[in-house]
Request: fold
Amino acid sequence: MKVTAPPHLMRNPKVRPDEWEMDVIRLQLMSATWPKGQAYSASAQKNGTPAQRTLIPEYYGSSCLACHGSPQGEIDITGFAKEGAKENDLGGIISITLYR
Reply:
């Protein structure tokens, strides 16, 4: 299990989405038609091994905006630039992989 995010929101390169996660984030979870909060699951290989993979979207709440909100580019208390996010924007993804 790891917590990742859309590539443009990445603060920690160690949890960058892999290719499968990036495709699902871009084509499903970031789609205007994707039902808010709905997880995505599929059988897909990871590192050449068959697995059941699930991505669960996480959205910014009001308490997240102190570090991730406006003004975009301002340095937050952790030393990162704020993303300019708004409440309920997609902010992260919980990625779960169960190997078969």
